[in-house]
Amino acid sequence: MSRLAESLAGWIAARVKEAGLRGAVLGLSGGVDSAVTAALCKMALGERVLGLIMPCGSDRADEEDATYVAAKLGVATATVRLDGPFRALVEELDVPAGLACANLKPRLRMAVLYYYANSTSYMVVGTGNKTELAIGYFTKYGDGGVDILPLGDLYKTQVWALAREICIPGRIVEKPPSAGLWEGQTDEGEMGIAYEDLDRVLEAIESGRTDGIAPGSVALVNGMVRRSSHKRICAQICEPAP
């Protein structure tokens, strides 16, 4: 895991350099994925890292955890409160409560991340992991709207293991994962499956060895992967017949 951290940090530094940029900007949510990503960016780029804390109807504890992690890592932060813009947009669109409304939050955060990236010649570093990418558990052009994904080939359980290796505080590693889209929301509650079980099924599907995995679990996860396939490809371009 220590070699993995060094490899990921080196990869981040290489991507920033080849793009001709100066550093990295990322969203700090107070969760383990953003904490690990921030730590890797710090290893890669030193002081040229900015963590954005962007409350939007968020649990105050998440903001406190994000600030705590940044202080522990020595990562500079800026706080941009999106409650007002979010309310104004909801009122203007007359949006009913629900997923479409909740997804406005990560899309507002994406816009702010790119504002700071453009202003500082930094690269937007995403915090998504392999588990979430595989089943589409991210908002298209929201938290999925980034330049690079250092954790994109690590399952959630591997992210937890890496977090412990690089000494991310226990209170961050152990908190229930949540996208913070609404009060009381948790990743596992929304997905209907625990991350440990989900990773086990995804690994079995990837290896082609699903014997010993409940058929219902395989069908559930395959359905998630299939329905979210559009999220993992660039916008398709029509090529008219000559």
Give a structural overview.
By secondary structure, the protein is of the alpha/beta class. The protein has a single domain (2-187), classed as Rossmann fold (3-Layer(aba) Sandwich), CATH 3.40.50. The protein has twelve helices and four strands; from the N terminus they run αβαβαβαααβαααααα. It has a four-stranded parallel beta sheet with strand order 3-2-1-4, with helices on both faces. α2 (32-45) links the parallel β1 (23-27) and β2 (49-53).
CATH architecture: 3-Layer(aba) Sandwich
Q: Per DSSP, what share of the residues sits in E-state strands of 2 or more residues?
A: 5-15%
Task: Tell me the total number of β-strands.
Answer: 4
Widest sheet: strand ordering: 3-2-1-4
User: Class in CATH?
Assistant: Alpha Beta
Provide the gyration radius in Å.
18 Å
Largest sheet descriptor? 4 strands, parallel
Give the N-to-C terminal Cα separation.
53 Å
Count of spatially separate domains: 1
Q: Report the CATH superfamily.
A: HUPs
